[in-house]
Structure prediction request, 320 residues.
Amino acid sequence: MISPYLLTGATRLNSFCKKLDIAEQGGARALWIANHLFLRDPVSLAATSLARTKNLHLVLMAISPLTMHPVQAAMSAATLDEMFPGRITLCFGVGAPADLNALSIEAEKPLKLMREALKVTRALLAGETVKYEGDHFSVASRGLVTGPRKVPLFLAASGPGMLELAGAEADGVLISAGASLPFVEQTLEHVRRGARGRKVRTQGLVYTSIDDSEVAANDRLRRLLAILLRGAHHRANLEAAGNKLDQAALNDAVLSNDWAKAESLITDRIVQQHAASGTREQLKQRFSNYHRAGLDEVVVAGAREPDQISRILKIQERMS
Prediction:
């Protein structure tokens, strides 16, 4: 299954709406709406999107308990589900470091916080009267007025502990963009370890570009991958794919806005290993490889032009 991911900072709302229409017309199962501070509100956009479409499922991704209390998150998801039954998923995540830093919010050791957030939210969505006292959150014998709502809870995770928590407590896990196929397999092993046999849906953000020319397709993604793969936490990801990348030089180039240098370091091989890029047939094969690596759903990221989204979604028809 292939679904698009849309940022909430599009220059014009009519551009967002056009992509939304393309997603439904293209047969996407779901639309993943990003939550980034100082951009547009994802809950408002989700409500508008659900009203505008007939079948599209919306995923609120990834709501941080550091900036939205789990009770408020549960209220939002339950209200949307009450209005559009069965069409909303709530995905938690720690949040983008730059966003949190802008609010002077510390995100050190968030595992316990996320475990509490999942526990409180699941109980509320189950219709329970919740009496809970944790280190981070407390609820004094209250329940949602909506009653029980069947809203799946996903977790955006990357580190081993968070991945095991997703396996143990969430209905689904979302893997970060830029993951190579071997790294996806390694990552999902942590999820399986936490799940202990229970079924957990697996999704992964995948930077995607399509063109009649493979090089032209790759060129669209080089800057995005340069910004992403410079981080030290991607070293294991690169090594799993057998790629050698001078991350220090890449980081220096990005920080100095030397995009020619930064993009030159992202070779075609690196794009091939850490994204889905190329011609229609190459993307079809790449998506199949991600599914074989263990992803139930490929969440297409980095495709910002409506034509790109439309062409990518058409591949799904050929894979059915």
